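Quick check before the chapter quiz. The format below is the same one you will see on the exam, so make sure you can read both the input and the output lines.
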Amino acid sequence: MAHILIVDDDATMRDALAEVVIDLGHSACMAANGMLALELLDTEAVNAMILDLRMPGIDGLEVLRRMRERDGAPPVTVLTAHATASNTIEAMRLGAFDHLTKPIGRADLAQVLQRMLASVEESGGGVCAEEPEALIGSSEAMRTVQKTIGVLADSDATVLVTGDTGTGKEVVARAIHEHGQRNRGPFVAVNCAAIPADLLESELFGHVRGAFTGASADRQGAFRQAECGTLFLDEIGDMDIAMQAKILRALQERVVVPVGGKPVPVNVRVIAATHRDLIRSVHDGTFREDLFYRLHVVPIHLPPLSERIADIVPLAEYFLNRATAGKRLSADAAAHLIRYGWPGNARELKNAMERAAVMVRGEYIHATDLTFLDDARSRQDPVVDWPDEDLPSALARLEEMLIRRALKHSGNNRTDAARRLNVNRQLLYAKLKRYGIEVADAPHEGKDGIEGSERSEGEV
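Here is the expected output.
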């Protein structure tokens, strides 16, 4: 049984609310104005509060302001007959659990009471200290990544991290740095796609004073800033072809040439990352083959989150804990997260948990709090109007659609498409023939090509 404080200047409304509260198995105490409510909070152990917005003396918003200064204040739902954008926003900003309009039905009152009381069960603890984002995951794919990091961390080998946007490539790079012998040195990250091509050389290699208009002082550049540490070149697949030649020289000779200056030796480990298919870029002539091999000393591939089902809930709980202390996922919310496809990968999951942490007042986040994910997916994925057909025909249609989608996402690279579909290449070739799907042969897929010696798991 919980003790509920009802604050309203209307005696009829107070009595009606108290009657429902008692019928629901709780006890009630009442206050006719805000000052009396604050005094009751000093003398009684209140588990939740129903607070009218408009009252003589101090109104509901002022009561909320004063309650913010108290430790262990109970959750408060504000009631008003005159809801406006202004008072709704202000009430929620001041910490109201919910903001409802009068008249309120019995079922609505019962629901909000249940949610408020659930929010205080087992609550407590302080805010966790901010820490660098960790590499979370127990799926087989992530276990492989973690083992690879452990093996290569103490070496100076160049690493190429690949994977779709949002899979956590920088987190992997930081983990390599933190667990390696260079962890006392700096970790410098440069997003090659975010810097204009004409400024990237100066950003990476530095410049001397007077080298160009606006160069009023010497600049070290990222390579020298990362001295004795790690330089992370994110989205290197977007780098201009001319700049690639200069990066190749820096990697080969461990020397950089500042714009307008003389060669300077550097001692730095380089980790590169890209969401692009560099093998295809080599074939297309947009990425240097010699630079690819220089970067591809130790490759690490991060699969999309949709292929790492075991990591979804642990990652969600981790992001939720970083966003706010004390909030948890209910069982139905966890199931909802697992069913969702995560086109934005771990980054989308992180954003979703940060949003839920802000918008949900209670301790537990439920599936109903995550409906914005379904709204986003419905805008992205068109509804398929399946024809009236038997099961074998429908399954064949679905299989063909999945194969065409995998080919599209892999740029018609059949090896990559087979990996995405989790089938061996011979089976994929048979399916292509069956459905009459013609795919032009890619030179880099041959036995003597760059990826000819690599096979996906399960391939024959």
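If your answer matched, good. The chain has four domains: 3-120, 140-302, 310-380, 391-445.
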